[in-house]
Every structure is written in structure tokens, then in C-alpha cells.
Amino acid sequence: MGIILTGPGTIGSTITQLAVALTLAGVDEARRRARRLVAAALDLSPAEVLARNDRVITNDESERVAAMLRRTLAHEPLSRILGTREFWGLDFMLSSDTLDPRPETETLVEAVLARVPGRGRPRRFLDLGTGTGCLLLALLSEYPAATGVGVDLAAGAVDTAARNAERHGLRPRAEFVVGNWGKGLTEAFDVIVANPPYIASSDLAALPPEVRDYDPSLALDGGADGLAAYRAIAADLPRLLAPAGFFACEIGAGQENAVAGIISAAALVIDDVLPDLAGIPRCVVARRT
Fold it and tell me: What superfamily in CATH does domain 84-288 come from?
């Protein structure tokens, strides 16, 4: 696909050209996305882009904008283009081994905050399938005396999570290890969180290209029925969860009953099923009997 920019102009005229191209490609909220793209290419904040609408961009900047537009039109998410995603007010680096954190996953953080008081007390957290480390690090940012472990099967994800911990000054309280869910862990944790893969294998091909082509299949593929990871995790919960501990996991749409059944069969009590901001059941919370 040929791009379209007529050459260096002002920030305002460039945004307009990008918005037209994105609209023709069927992209939602084209002008807002165009502003974000130009801001990223010029290393400006969205507010600076609006305030400097008449600023002329250089040839090099125009080329950067065009390159980012090509990637956007190929359905690459802006977070992947930039290499970062905001989650719980923190900026997380991404890699090819990590899921791109979504806002709905913040439901798990909210669930823990509502159920685990005394944020100044020492706690032990476990994050199974840690990816970028976003869940564990968000919780550690809220519980300053807590420490935790993040586990992921992908060594690249473990490395990315460790770098994110360094980025936010949380490395002394966060350990990241390569592992297969809870296998090999021996201690008991006050809180266990997990955002496991929950897409049925046969449904992967139908996912939007922004997800299918850029998120790692290891973080998406939940097996034949999408529930394989929940079964593996549940088997270790009675051993890994402290007597007064909580478990919170993300689920896919329509999976609340199946996941609750798997967790209940592991002798845990379902505390609640919480919706995300769209009202979709998104988080199953359980506790020890």
C-alpha cells in the first residue's frame, strides 16, 4: 500500500492526512488515533501536539510518521509500534514474548485491593503467567511492604518483566522465574493472580489481526476448550495458597461458570465473579475454605 503523505507540513495538516488515510482503512476514531501516532513519531505528548498545531515538521519526522502509519494500516497496535503499554498508571515495556496488557485486566488488581486490607503489611504475591509483570508490579506498587514472584513459561517474558521491575524501582521486591504455572513452587502465598490463555485453539484464526498477529500464541491458546490453563493452575492452588489467601484470575467472555467449577473442584470457595468496565464477567475470585 502506498502512503499518501504529501510531504512535510504542519502538525495539524499531517494529522488531517493521517485521519483521512485511517478513515479510508476503516479504522475507528481515526482522528484521535492520528493525533496519537503523530505525537509518538515526534516524541511529543498529546497536549503538546494540540498546542503546537502550526509547527512545521521536518523531512525526517515526516518519514517517521509515514513509517508508523504503514505499520498501523497493517493492523499493528500502536502499543507494539511504541514498544510500551500503560497499565495501572505504570508504563510497561512489551516484547514478542509478552501479551499486550489490556485495561480489563485491571479488574484483577481492583479485586485484590478490595479484599486485602493493610497495605503496609508484609505480603507474598504470586503471578502465574506474568508476561510483562504488569499484575505483580501493579500490586507491589500498591502494597509497599509486599514481595512477590512472577512465573512464565517464556524466558523472554521473564526477562521483560524483570526489566519492567527495574524500570519502576520494584526489582528488589520482585522475583521472576521461568516455570510451568505453579509446578516447582513450594511456599504459600497470600495472593495468587493469573491471566492465563483462554482462547480455544480452534478460535485463534478468527481473532482480530491486532491480536492474532502480534500477541504470542503461548499467551492466547487455551487448548481445545480454552480451559486447559485453569485446570493446571487449580491443581496447585490448595498447596500454594495460604489459609487466608485469595486467588483472582481473568476469564474470557462466557467462561465464568466453567472456570468457577474448576476452581471449586480444587476445594476453594468462589468469593465473587466481577465484571470489567464493559459489564462482561472478567474476574473469578476464590479463597481457601
Answer: Vaccinia Virus protein VP39 (3.40.50.150)
